[in-house]
What we know:
Layout: H1 3-24, H2 30-37, H3 41-48, H4 57-66
Amino acid sequence: MRRGAxxxxxxxxxxxxxxxxxxxxxxxxxxxxxxxxxxxxxxxxALRREKxxxxxxxxxxxxxxxxxxxxxxxxxxxxxxEVT
Length: 84
């Protein structure tokens, strides 16, 4: 897989995780959300401004776990590709 394609997949995953987090904290103030997720208020500000590149997949998964959200991963392979 080309580097650009890998980065695109990474961004798609981060976007989905970030969107889910934003939905969870929608009705909270930044201070409340920071306390709830165990992060600083500036991190919540970045989250709400959709600064995707500032968050690793690990960090987003950890925040979702603190919010009680279970993250599941699924994989798909293009047809005709065999893994040995």
